[in-house]
Specification:
The structure is a single chain. The protein is of the alpha+beta class. It is 29% helix and 27% strand. The chain is flat.
């Protein structure tokens, strides 16, 4: 995991990690070897952006904003989610139904042959597991998740079906310093259309701000976060 994180941030600033003498960089950073550096990064003790700064002073400044943050995924989940009952090496997966964000209250459900699946505590899919023989685990976000991570939240907007509306909605997201990763068109009815946005934000507070910005637009009838399968 540490190696993937380091490789990822190098590529973010246009540097091929294969061309970098990471052994020398590890020593400059105070580690005995490359593996020790990777382990420290993988455990969240050393930031990947700091590796770039040591290798190429000033280059880390090219990866501003979300480029320096860790994307919430199944691969990074062990760094961003913790719980008293988690065993080392447990396979952790983020719920695709509710798209948990840092700041959400979260819970884990042990799934046979899969591992631990992380849901928001108010995810609509949790009703499927009531009364079944699944082990539930209380979870929390790590400090790394609270300060150095981004995740994708899903939003449904019902807006006037007319020219220029999509541009207005996208502008609202841009002004909130967030990234749109996907847009789907949902149902059309009368003069309105449903639009589904996947938006990359640092936490649930930012997504709430974006929802408020959507609702302030005269062309928007309704804007809500999706917390169950669409």
């Amino acid at each position: 995991l540490g190696q993937r994180l380091v490789d990822h941030v190098f590529r973010r600033v246009g540097i091929d990690p294969v061309s970098v003498a990471l052994g020398d960089i590890a020593i400059k950073a105070g580690f005995s070897d490359t593996e020790s550096l990777y382990e420290s990064v993988g455990r969240g003790r050393f930031k990947p952006a700091d590796v770039i700064e040591i290798a190429f002073p000033g280059s880390s400044g090219e990866a501003k904003g979300y480029g320096e943050k860790l994307s919430l995924s199944d691969a990074s989940a062990p760094l961003l989610v913790s719980g008293a009952d988690l065993t080392p090496g447990l396979s952790i997966h983020m719920g695709r139904c509710c798209c948990p964000l840092p700041g959400d209250r979260i819970i884990g459900v042990h799934m046979p042959e899969i591992g631990l699946v992380v849901h928001t505590s108010y995810c609509g899919a949790l009703a499927e597991f009531e009364g079944e023989d699944h082990e539930w685990v209380d979870l929390r976000w790590t400090e790394l998740a609270k300060t150095d991570a981004v995740a994708v939240g899903r939003v449904k907007v019902t807006a006037a079906d007319r020219k220029g509306v999509l541009v207005m909605l996208c502008s609202a997201v841009t002004e909130a310093n967030a990234n749109i990763t996907r847009i789907d068109t949902g149902d059309r009815g009368g003069d309105f259309v449903d639009l589904i946005f996947d938006i990359e934000v640092e936490d649930v507070k930012r997504l709430t701000q974006i929802l408020a910005a959507f609702r302030s637009l005269a062309v928007v009838d309704r804007a809500e976060r999706l917390l169950e399968r669409a």
